[in-house]
Amino acid sequence: MVQLDDLDRAILKLLKQDARLTISELAERLNRPESTIHFRIKKLIEKGVIDRYTIILGEPLKPKSVVAVYIETEIPVIEDFLEKYINHITKTLSMLPNVLAVARSGRNGIIALIGGETEEQIEKFVDDTIRTLPSLRKVEVFPFTNIVKGEDVIGFLVDV
Amino acid sequence: MVQLDDLDRAILKLLKQDARLTISELAERLNRPESTIHFRIKKLIEKGVIDRYTIILGEPLKPKSVVAVYIETEIPVIEDFLEKYINHITKTLSMLPNVLAVARSGRNGIIALIGGETEEQIEKFVDDTIRTLPSLRKVEVFPFTNIVKGEDVIGFLVDV
DNA sequence: TATGAAAGACATCATGT
DNA sequence: ACATGATGTCTTTCATA
């Protein structure tokens, strides 16, 4: 187990907001010496608490419209078919640039996050690429009308 | 409209993988002078293509189990009630630390991403906190059995 | 817009309290 | 955990093409 104190948490919170804050800026805001901040961050990285640094892309590259899609396949008699078929679908979806994220859900379900320029374009994508897949039991589409928490997850996920 | 060339895209791709790459490292990998890389990044930030820099948290802080929940309310006679009620639910959910993301979906739907230590703990949370809400027409739970694309979205969303 | 060079700011490390 | 100083590296700026 990893134990974090208030200082660790304060550093993490600030870096989440802006990972380009310099050690001296962090030191000043948190009223601690630079050497301490440097040491803490080093430890946080070593312990894997900080996994990596990244950038969030902004409006110009973000899809204007996003939906979540739940796909459920029929369950075939031979279990091995199911596994291979689900894997095939997830891999195919993963390669498409407007598919932001893909997860398996249970034994015969898939959830995908899909972005596009308009709702219509996404609907077309769902109709052409997903609903045409054979042996589906269910396709549910949940539009993202307004993201209330975690809004910049889209800029995080979008491909360049 | 923002036009990106190959160099811009290459910089963005590298920074997405590791935002701590120095300008000199980027310059070396892309065979361009440091001043050029510096200039491009400055422009990308000005244009809003790069929104901000952040950290992704690692295993120690990530919930081991994640589900998506779709909530749909009844539609009351008075439209204004619906709006206020939905807003109330989304705001309440947003404040909870194990609720990773919340979005409105259509007029009377909400999608939430929920993390926890075990599936059972999440089930309990859903039963206690969500299913007890009045006037719900539907609550659907989609477990994330295995994330295939966008895996580190969890470490991106998790609260510190 | 791209580049090269120079100046200043910064992270990093060792040592000691 | 904190302080200090030495070192090398990086960012930033500016003049120029």
From TrEMBL, chains A, B:
InterPro entries cross-referenced by the UniProt entry: ArsR-like_HTH, AsnC-type_HTH_dom, HTH-Siroheme_Decarb, PF0864-like_C, Tscrpt_reg_AsnC-like, WH-like_DNA-bd_sf, WH_DNA-bd_sf
GO BP, one annotated term: regulation of DNA-templated transcription
Keyword vocabulary terms for this entry: DNA-binding, Transcription, Transcription regulation
UniProt xrefs under PROSITE patterns: HTH_ASNC_2
GO terms, molecular function: DNA-binding transcription factor activity; sequence-specific DNA binding
Domain HTH asnC-type: 4-65
Record's signal peptide: none
Record Pfam families: AsnC_trans_reg_3, HTH_24
Protein name (Swiss-Prot/TrEMBL): Predicted transcription regulator, Lrp/AsnC family
